Known about the structure:
Blueprint: E1 6-14, E2 24-29, H1 32-43, E3 47-52, E4 69-80, E5 86-103, E6 108-114, H2 124-144, H3 150-157, H4 162-173, H5 177-184, H6 189-241, H7 244-260, H8 265-279, H9 286-300, H10 313-323, H11 328-343, E7 351-355, H12 362-373, E8 377-381, H13 388-392, H14 405-413, E9 419-423, H15 436-444, E10 467-472, H16 480-484, E11 486-490, H17 496-514, E12 522-524, H18 526-536, H19 543-562, E13 568-570, H20 575-579, E14 594-595, E15 597-604, E16 607-619, E17 624-627, H21 632-647, H22 649-652, H23 658-661, E18 662-667, H24 681-693, E19 696-697, E20 701-703, E21 706-707, E22 713-714, H25 719-729, E23 733-737, H26 749-753, E24 756-760, H27 763-770
Parallel strand pairs: 1-3, 7-10, 7-11, 8-9, 9-10, 12-13, 15-20, 17-18, 20-23, 23-24
Antiparallel strand pairs: 1-6, 2-5, 3-4, 4-5, 5-6, 14-19, 15-16, 16-18, 21-22
Helix pairs in contact: 2-6, 4-5, 4-6, 7-8, 8-9, 10-11, 10-12, 17-18, 17-19, 21-24, 24-27
Amino acid sequence: MAKSNRLTIPLIPVRGLVVFPYMVLHFDVVRKKSIAALEEAMTNNQLIFLTSQHDGLLEDVTENDFYKIGTVSKIKQLLKLPGDSIRVLVEGLYRAKIREVTKTEPFFEVEVVEKKSTNGDLDELEFEAIVRQISYIFEDYYRLSPKVSPDAIQSILSISDPGQFADTVAANIVKKNEDKQSILEEFNVKNRLEKLLLILSREVEVLEIEKNIANKVRSQIDKNQRDYYLREQLKIIRSELGEGDDIASEVEEYRQKLEAASIPDEGKEKLKKEISRLEKMSSSSAEAAVIRTYLDTVFDLPWDSRTEESLDLIKAAKILDEDHYGLTDVKERILEYLAVKKLSPNIKGSILCLVGPPGVGKTSIVRSIAKALNRKYVRMSLGGVRDESEIRGHRKTYVGAMPGRIINALRIAGSKNALILLDEIDKMSSDFRGDPASAMLEVLDAEQNYAFRDHYIEIPFDLSEILFITTANSLDTIPRPLLDRMEVIRISGYTHEEKLHIANKHLLPKQLALHALKKSNIRIKDDTLREILDGYTREAGVRTLERELARLCRKVARTIATTNKQSVSITKTNLHKFLGPKKYRYDLLKEKDEVGVVTGLAWTAVGGDTLSVEVNIMDGTGKIELTGHLGDVMKESAKAAISYIRSKSAELKIEPDFYKKYDIHIHVPEGATPKDGPSAGITMATALISALTNRPARKDVAMTGEITLRGRVLPIGGLKEKILAAYRMGIKTVILPKDNETDLEQIPDNVKSCMNFVLAEYMDTVIKHALLPQKEAPKSEKDMEIQIPLDFNVSENETHIEAKPY
Ligand code: ADP
């Protein structure tokens, strides 16, 4: 000990704390070297130099690992702790700086020199100001971290020595050791206070941020807890009001359902909200009922349930053949679909559209397809749908809102990969309430329908696994964009032979089973069935036939139940007893070849039909009259026919000014059925020419084809049905457009073999085959009026008219 302010004493490097003068604190000493230093100090003057380690985690410390400035402290008390460690109570005395490390083993010993604090130019006012500043910061500090007691803060604020004040604040409030050390190393009190102010402000800022983060984390947890408490309270209030348990248990049930359902996340959020809304309502309120219906509907949907599709081609083919006769195109297309699906499971199939007249089995084959594929089947009729919301549903805000038909179909199906039959898609129409076709477009579009959004459900539903099949009677009224998305398969009507086969193999067995009859209960021969076909049905399909057979079975069942008979025989002669008088007779061949009356062929909703076009030429001024409920297109083709005749009058040997001298009346009987389309063009032209040239038209010739102004014969549709109608009527020759030649392939051989087909490219071919040579010299105009032939339509209540010979 040379000079008075120098001292050689043992040193303990302390970890994680900085000892300031005036500070009394205790810490535990564990390291051997530090214990040795302690012991050395105790044998001398109990003074020890305490300085911080740079790195608090370091065990073996060298002389470079601690700060050079520390505090000379007095050991006040020692307490031996279990396990060789010692708890020391020390009091900081003054700052000192190491001049030299005099010993490093067995403990550190250093020569230190005291460092006095200088007040600098700090005057009292400045000190006062800083203390105030610090007290403000304390307020914030206390607000953010109320760990420090207000008393402690008060006692700190009352320290009057500026240096000591700064040290005490640093020791108690400052968190980081580096900051504390930097305060310790500041000997100028004014600087020390300023530094402290800076550190404290920063400290408060960090605390603020810390608190914000903590708040965010906590608020999430708090909210859950809060919700839980509120819910519990609500339950109690409810039970006090006597409306408690049912809604609570209901809500609980919905929550469990929500947990279990594989609904997209967006949907789950929405449902959660709805459930919470329900929870706050009185169970009997109308609004609660609305939410309940909504939730039930949503949970009823097959979010994740599907049937396993059967891809067995042989089995499928068998099922399809068992259920339906013919319909080969449809059956083949389905088997192709299956084959492709087998090779490439994720392929998106196209949407089939089965087009054909009623009763040809469109609906029922689709049911069989569902059976063959092992998919659930739902039929959705689109006939008369004229409002978009029928497809897509009403928004929940509407009173009595409901989901749309697609969602309803899914509910019924209960399977995500059902087969949905969209029946009569051509009967869908649009009006001011919106266009259902555009909603249908979205449903059928593979690019969009994986997230179909119903207005009511509001949660997207994936329709991509659904197999859609549509049916239509005609393609004319299907909007083009919708049609473009579908693959059309045409199903034409059946011939008599085919109908007979279907009746024997399918319809009759089905009806017998439905009426609990045995095959032996009813005896019916083919010619009786033919009689039913001719006299009681008039259709391309077999729907009425099936109905008549059902009627027959009912009557037979009644006979068997009321008499002792075990078998009823139905013959041509007693048929009317079962089915009543005949309803139809097919058009008979005209009795003779007539002038101005020509048989045409038409395609109507019930299949093919014959139609006779009559023309009367009368003295007049060139008026043209068209009667018989003709559509615009038909009227136009009549005019085209007249223009053609005018341009060819010389060739046809017709008076060139006939259109000025005569009034022409064209009539197509059977006014109740509206007729339209261009396919009667050549028929009208032929009838006109027949009337104008007085050449009789052959009674056994029928024709169909559109006419151009140049007399070309253009192709038409529905040829098979038309030819079948001609065949029924007993026509021998059918004149048809040359371009329709390929359609003849569809005509059954038995029909083809007893008919002639004339393929016409121009009107002259038609005239050549349809008109006979002029019989006599032209009569006076009065005589040219032609008698109207027998009308073939017999009203329902008209009694028995003998059927035509088949
Ligand atoms: P569409 O849907 O074309 O109007 P449906 O499917 O309602 O016709 O058919 C009417 C009835 O005729 C059904 O009972 C159906 O089973 C039967 N049917 C139609 N075509 C056939 C066929 N090719 N084979 C067996 N039954 C048929």
